[in-house]
Design brief:
The complex is a heterodimer. Chain A is an all-alpha fold. Chain A contains eleven helices and two strands, in the order H-H-E-E-H-H-H-H-H-H-H-H-H. In chain A, helix 3 runs parallel beside helix 6. Classes of the chains: A mainly alpha, B mainly alpha.
Chain lengths: 286, 259
């Protein structure tokens, strides 16, 4: 009796675990199947064409790809130095009494849903951008900044964790040789934690590129490539969020699916690079 | 200036810059939190919990439909996600161990945790990887001597897992579940086109159902001030719910570590 139950239990856990893998394969398969029509219709020109005109049944993803790349790039430029600053502050400067509460609040902020960041951006940040830089305030620039603030807590927390892995004895040796804090940071901590720090930046990049709600509020969903950052723009997730519910033709629908597939492949690749190349697997809570 | 003085000066400059960027970064985050709390508290009233959606311009509107809808959606996701996540995590830690398949499942789950939710679409899938990985990690922290002791008493493996390993990792698994639920509760993107949204109370899973997150999006982007107010109230309630889950989850972890 026990033998049978044992087998059932073992096999059902195995079955479910395997199901998780199948689910991922299934997601890719479904996306691919639905994109087929668009792939057939446009081929490679889908990602090279800058015209997205649903009324003419013409779909080119270049503006969305451009928007994703530029907004994420902006967000990274803004967030990386601040995240490093916060990480240095938390791991080396802050007093122990400040370290824990500030560190925990930053981790908690990483848990706040991105729709809240988007809402704040829309009501409080858009007017500031409008008044300082001109334009309507709904723009690529706003999206980049809101995105950078949204990924900041996550990035700062993982960068700090990476820095904290440096053994105390290494730091103490450097201090004993007369190093200043900055000497210790640049010659000991950063070289030691380099892989972890870069990995966490790339992971944040992977998250930022797929981020939807924080930017949907402030980007405008305008399919036009403009070099002026004050102009409204669009990105892949923003297009998906705005247009999926209103796709009225097969080809439109299929093109949106192809965009989803593109986004999934891009973020899958970026996250895999971060995970496998730079980060050894971290144990939760350990 | 001597070499030492120069080094000290550079050190001071860098330390000041780091502190400054920390202040700027934390300042922005405090700003968002402050805006959320002041607007949320201002908009909060009892009608929010008792009234359903109303047309704009009508101060009778509430969020009852969205709150109940959200609760149903999250419970439904948990109903599927929690057992699936825990069982899959059990396989990884207790049966799969370091086998190739187990390692692949771990890797894929790690990636899926960060994959764009708007593409993944399915609501439940946001929580499975988190629960799976936490369960896996927490079960591995249970000392193998406990398992061996139970085996020595003649217990079959499933009994060892359920009665010994699960008990030892109870707090950790609970943390994973709480974090998974918190994550799912904040997801908006997948709901934009899977559950759509309804301005009225509906408890039928087969009909479009209101959720807090999509309500926040719709109300915040509407031009009506009273809807925007309701949007802030919804944002406040949702954030508090998620923060509470996260804090409780952390307390469990601390308790486990403290032992």
């Amino acid at each position: 009796m026990n033998n049978i139950v044992d087998k059932i239990f073992a096999n059902s856990t195995k079955f479910i675990a395997f199901g998780v893998l199948l689910l991922v394969a299934w997601i890719f398969a479904v996306l691919f199947e639905h994109s087929l029509e668009s792939i057939k219709a446009f081929g490679f020109s889908f990602i090279a064409d800058d015209k997205w005109a649903p009324n003419l049944e013409k779909f080119g993803a270049l503006p969305a790809i451009y928007g994703s790349v530029v907004s994420t790039f902006l967000a990274m430029i803004l967030a990386v130095p601040v995240a490093i600053g916060i990480a240095i502050f938390l791991s080396e400067i802050a007093h122990a009494k400040l370290k824990t509460p500030v560190g925990i609040s930053i981790e908690l902020l990483a848990a706040i849903p991105s729709v809240i960041y988007g809402m704040w951006g829309l009501f409080y940040f858009v007017p500031i951008i409008r008044d300082t830089f001109g334009g309507v305030g709904i723009s690529m620039l706003t999206a980049g900044i809101v995105l950078s603030i949204m990924i900041l807590p996550f990035m700062a927390a993982v960068t700090r964790d990476a820095m904290n892995t440096t053994p105390d004895i290494l730091k103490e040796s450097a201090y004993a040789l007369g190093g200043t804090k900055w000497d210790v940071i640049k010659d000991i901590i950063i070289p030691y934690a380099k892989a972890g720090i870069i990995g966490s930046f790339i992971l944040a990049l992977g998250r930022a590129i797929g981020e939807t709600m924080a930017v949907t509020f402030v980007m405008g969903n305008v399919h036009k490539i403009s070099t002026d950052l004050r102009d409204p723009a669009t990105s892949i997730p923003v297009t998906l969020a705005n247009e999926f519910a209103e796709a009225d033709s097969e080809l439109y629908y299929s093109s949106l699916f192809e965009l989803s597939l593109l986004l999934l492949i891009i973020s899958f690749t970026i996250i895999s690079i971060a995970k496998f190349y730079f980060l050894r697997r971290k144990r939760v809570g350990a | 200036m001597t070499h030492t003085q120069k080094r000290i000066l550079i050190n001071d400059i860098v330390m000041a810059l780091s502190t400054l960027s920390a202040i700027i970064g934390i300042g922005f985050l405090l700003w968002i939190l402050g805006v959320l709390v002041t607007n949320g508290l201002e908009a909060l009233s009892t009608t929010i919990f008792t009234a359903e959606g109303a047309p704009p311009g009508n101060s009778e509107g509430g969020l009852k439909h969205a709150l109940i809808g959200q609760l149903i959606l999250v419970s439904y996701a948990a109903l599927f996600g929690v057992p699936l996540g825990i069982l899959a995590g059990t396989y990884l830690s207790e049966y799969g161990l370091k086998s190739k398949m187990a390692e692949t499942i771990r890797d894929i789950s790690d990636i899926m945790m960060s994959a764009p939710s708007i593409v993944i679409g399915a609501f439940v899938y946001a929580m499975i990887p988190i629960i799976l990985r936490t369960t896996d990690d927490m079960l591995q922290l249970v000392p193998s001597t406990l398992r061996e002791a139970a085996f020595a008493l003649g217990a079959p493996k499933y009994k060892v897992i359920i009665q010994v390993v699960y008990r030892g990792a109870k707090a950790g698994i609970l943390t994973g579940v709480l974090l998974g639920v918190a994550r799912v509760a904040g997801e908006t993107a997948p709901l934009l086109f899977t559950s759509f949204n309804d301005n009225f109370l509906n408890t039928n899973m087969n009909e479009p159902m209101a959720s807090l997150t999509v309500t926040i999006y719709n109300y915040a982007t509407s031009p009506y001030e009273d809807w925007q107010q309701l949007g802030w109230a919804a944002a406040f309630i949702l954030s508090m719910f998620i923060l509470t889950l996260n804090i409780i989850g952390r307390l469990f972890l601390l308790k486990r570590k403290g032992r």
